[in-house]
Fold each of these.
Amino acid sequence: MAPRVPSSSLLLVGAALLLGLAAGAARASNEEGDALYALRMRLSDPNGVLQSWDPTLVNPCTWFHVTCDTASRVVRLDLGNSNVSGSIGPELSRLVNLQYLELYRNNLNGEIPKELGKLKNLISLDLYANKLTGRIPKSLSKLGSLRFIFENNSRLNGPELQGLVSYDFGC
């Protein structure tokens, strides 16, 4: 005869499993928050504009400078004229529903990550008045929705997008 397991033990194991599943679901739904928080960690923010970016929230839709659609997916990131400095990281490519990326008039440096070419819904990429360097990634040419690239006062080479996408270099 098999030993009998008390029902209270089964309840405890069941509750632990449910909590684990719920935590996993919350973690998956916070992928966009994780991506934005990774960006925050890359940036110096002397004016505290990213102060509301709390990685413990279920999603980033309540964060300042972040706009979400009715399904709570990030569609706009507007850090324009925020006096942040640092680099743009590849983690932004995890914002798969992003339509507007506005990073103008900051002190951003380094290269534009080629991973931004994964943002299939991106309509506008505004990098005007930063200190970016390197080549404009050819991966941006794969963005069929991209209509505007605003870039000026940076040290970018290119454009590799000529004839592939409409763009405005703000010249």
Note: Confidence is low (pLDDT under 50) at residues 21-29.
Amino acid sequence: MNEKERRRVIFSIIAAAVFVMTLVGRFELNIGMTFGFFILGISFLMQANYAREDGLDKEMKSNTIVGLVVLAIGVYFFASWLAG
């Protein structure tokens, strides 16, 4: 396993742990989902950067779009938490 794959796995495990801890009630729903989606979105954007470095144009575009959508969902949960 190379360094890029290791980072992707670590970020995915952290995001999964945040989602699970949110579901079992360790975190408030909006805060847990905010951090989970932020971590997941950053993971997708990191993968887009790695794909760009490797010259995989189609994968870079799809990972960028998915990463931005996931970050937007995180922003939604953050805004709903701020709104009360």
Note: Residues 3-83 form one domain.
